[in-house]
Amino acid sequence: xxxxxxxxxxxxxxxxxxxxxxxxxxxxxxxxxxxxxxxxxxxxxxxxxxxxxxxxxxxxxxxxxxxxxxxxxxxxxxxxxxxxxxxxxxxxxxxxxxxxxxxxxxxxxxxxxxxxxxxxxxxxxxxxxxxxxxxxxxxxxxxxxxxxxxxxxxxxxxxxxxxxxxxxxxxxxxxxxxxxxxxxxxxxxxxxxxxxxxxxxxxxxxxxxxxxxxxxxxxxxxxxxxx
Amino acid sequence: xxxxxxxxxxxxxxxxxxxxxxxxxxxxxxxxxxxxxxxxxxxxxxxxxxxxxxxxxxxxxxxxxxxxxxxxxxxxxxxxxxxxxxxxxxxxxxxxxxxxxxxxxxxxxxxxxxxxxxxxxxxxxxxxxxxxxxxxxxxxxxxxxxxxxxxxxxxxxxxxxxxxxxxxxxxxxxxxxxxxxxxxxxxxxxxxxxxxxxxxxxxxxxxxxxxxxxxxxxxxxxxxxxxxxxxxxxxxxxxxxxxxxxxxxxxxxxxxxxxxxxxxxxxxxxxxxxxxxxxxxxxxxxxxxxxxxxxxxxxxxxxxxxxxxxxxxxxxxxxxxxxxxxxxxxxxxxxxxxxxxxxxxxxxxxxxxxxxxxxxxx
Lengths: 227, 362
Fold this sequence. Notes:
The complex is a heterodimer. Chain A is mainly alpha-helical. Chain A has helices at residues 10-40, 46-58, 61-72, 79-86, 94-118, 122-130, 135-146, 148-163, 167-173, 183-192, 196-226. Chain A has a single domain (10-226), classed as MetI-like fold. The radius of gyration of chain A is 20 Å and the shape is globular. In chain A, 38% of the residues are buried. Chain B has 2 domains: 8-234, Rossmann fold (3-Layer(aba) Sandwich), CATH 3.40.50.300; 240-361, CATH 2.40.50.100. Chain B starts with 7 loop residues before the first strand and ends with a strand. The A-B interface holds A 121, 123-124, 126-135, 137, 141-142, 145-146 and B 51, 53, 78-86, 88, 90, 92-96, 105-106, 109-110, 147, 150-151, 154.
């Protein structure tokens, strides 16, 4: 246990920010095609995909964390493949945390993106196609810029949500300083050891950060709507 | 440029619920080809198939010798490689790009028609002052002009226009149609123009395809297709003919221009410079028939000698007369069935056609 030292504020915070940053980047790449497909598809099994994507919103983090712990563990695929490949386990590692966070925050990236893509008319896409744009070109030159507010919302929400996760991290990552000991875990640790001063310090930082991110998003959205 | 082959050849079959498209036809690449029919006749569906936006059950399309759709041999050219531009009913401009970037969108993706073409299009469509504006700040007419310019600047082999002026008021509509006509002549790009307004078609088109319940029921040069008064969309109150005339003189005192159609002379209101080509439309309901050849007994200026060629009686109070002018050109007149009986008109009778009003199309 390294908790309790007053100077140990920035380690967990830096780790949290790194985790949130990497997760957000990955999620934007993963969520964009899913959101575009959900927005355009008329497949009969689309609701199934929607429900799966939304699951992390309603499941207790412990349930999600429990399944991830098993799946990422060294005793069965896909965790065992990783173990064979690298000789390390995904559980109780930063890489494992990134994967868990991506699953946990997926709906917070997909849903705002899908809402933004829904507002992009087929008409403009068709016009682009008849002007010589490939489907991919039309997507990047028309749909993506028009859905910019959705990308901003998806990034901010994924980032903030990952920053604030606790249950899943605890189940999958444990509490290894520099590897999996993120802010929320450190705070829990401080409270457990009755180190309220350090808990206050980290909690207030997290509160301020979360507020700042959300404020940024809403201000940006308002600017865009006005222009 | 003129080629012997029909230039544009299409055949599409498509079933969607109760709607069936089974349209086959051809068009010349010279001039504007109208695709005319009532709402729901399948005009837009056909256009979307040609553009590749909809996939037909069976598809065949050749443009200037290039096989674009050939479902029998599994060939289907993707939308972006057809070089077929589309002007939709709504402008569909890209809201995040200013007018200049909208205009350049196609040119950046296809072999560009060049700087001169850009200047020409911007100039003719009066877009110069709009270039740095965003689409949200444009009026309906301005936006549609940008959309037309954008389509033309993608240097298409064929331009499809789907009622591009339907949402505009009459004055804007006329402006834009004139622009389209001019630009078409300047660029040489063949145009397939969808409309359910006969007026628009008569103003703009040289060839006409008539669509009814998803089928092409008539096609050919505008003048001859307009005589197909057996078709519901071309018979009845809207029936009429067009003439391509040349202005020969203008009388400023009476504000009347004299037009020549072969040896015939017509007087139309307003000034047309001598030598100007003028397309006039004469509606059947504006033509009455007289047996009296003396000129003084009527207030009507345009009195043309004609021979009665045929009568179409569709069972209503009015009948359509097909007349031949001395040079063989046709003219339609709509009179009451009672007049027909009282005047005892018979085929080959010589009559005088009195044209009450003429709509002039520059």
